[in-house]
Amino acid sequence: xxxxxxxxxxxxxxxxxxxxxxxxxxxxxxxxxxxxxxxxxxxxxxxxxxxxxxxxxxxxxxxxxxxxxxxxxxxxxxxxxxxxxxxxxxxxxxxxxxxxxxxxxx
Length: 106
What we know:
Helix content is 22%, strand content 34%. By secondary structure, it is of the alpha+beta class. A 4-stranded antiparallel beta sheet has the order 2-1-5-6, covered by helices on one side. The radius of gyration is 13 Å and the shape is globular. The protein starts with 9 loop residues before the first strand and ends with a helix. The model has no long low-confidence stretch (mean pLDDT 95).
């Protein structure tokens, strides 16, 4: 699956609605289809990686909203800390993963 840039108004917000990352912190987004489950892979810039890892560590067992403007696209629950330059959001179907990518890509 191809990698895409994200729209200029993509962001991640915490449950209080505070913007933790904005579009400048994303490097790319793409659909992943593995033998486990379809998912969406987000790659971060160096600064985005640091901000995302901090956001995750502060929001374990809470949700973070992936938004385009004021529209919440998905709100995954944060289960564990992360240290990498990417994050994967698992979906139930390939169509769901494709829909998320189509909403956030440029």
